[in-house]
């Protein structure tokens, strides 16, 4: 992911609400599966890390990205933003990226 792509995704992430909240139990297999499903459906997700989660937020972000095969866009405060392109149903078009003729994006 290029710096421009990351900046574009950060801009998009500003307008979305967190879809998951990570609490005291931290990274359980169930949470990782829920995050992976959300990333597949949305491509870009924001996760809220609650105050009762005592683990390091950066460590959580990169571990979760590795386990869900996604990329960390940013960690800011107690929020994590992850991105993973869905080649079957791409929703995010980067600036300068060409859309294929038979692509069904809206």
Q: Could you list some keywords that capture this structure?
A:
single chain, 106 residues, four-stranded mixed sheet, alpha+beta, 4 strands, 19% strand
Describe the overall structure:
The protein has 106 residues and is α+β, with helices and mostly antiparallel strands. It has helices at 3-13, 29-42, 57-68, and strands at 20-22, 44-49, 71-76, 79-83. The chain has a four-stranded mixed β-sheet with strand order 1-2-4-3, sandwiched between helices. The protein is globular and about 45 Å long. It starts with a helix and ends in a 23-residue tail after the last strand.
Q: Number of DSSP helices? A: 3
Strand coverage percent: 15-25%
- Beta-strand segment tally: 4
Helix percent reads 25-40%
Uncertain spans = none
User: What is the strand arrangement across the widest sheet?
Assistant: 1-2-4-3
- Our measurement of the CA-to-CA distance between the termini, rounded to an integer number of angstroms, reads 23 Å
């Amino acid at each position: 992911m290029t710096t421009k792509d990351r900046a574009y995704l950060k801009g998009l992430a500003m307008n979305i609400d967190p879809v998951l909240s990570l609490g005291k139990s931290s990274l359980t297999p169930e949470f990782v599966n829920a995050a992976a499903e959300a990333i597949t459906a949305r491509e870009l997700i924001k996760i809220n890390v609650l105050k009762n989660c005592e683990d390091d937020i950066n460590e959580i972000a990169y571990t979760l990205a590795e386990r869900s095969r996604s990329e960390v866009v940013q960690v800011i405060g107690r929020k994590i933003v992850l991105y993973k392109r869905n080649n079957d149903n791409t929703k995010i078009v980067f600036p300068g990226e060409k859309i294929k003729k038979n692509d069904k994006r809206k």
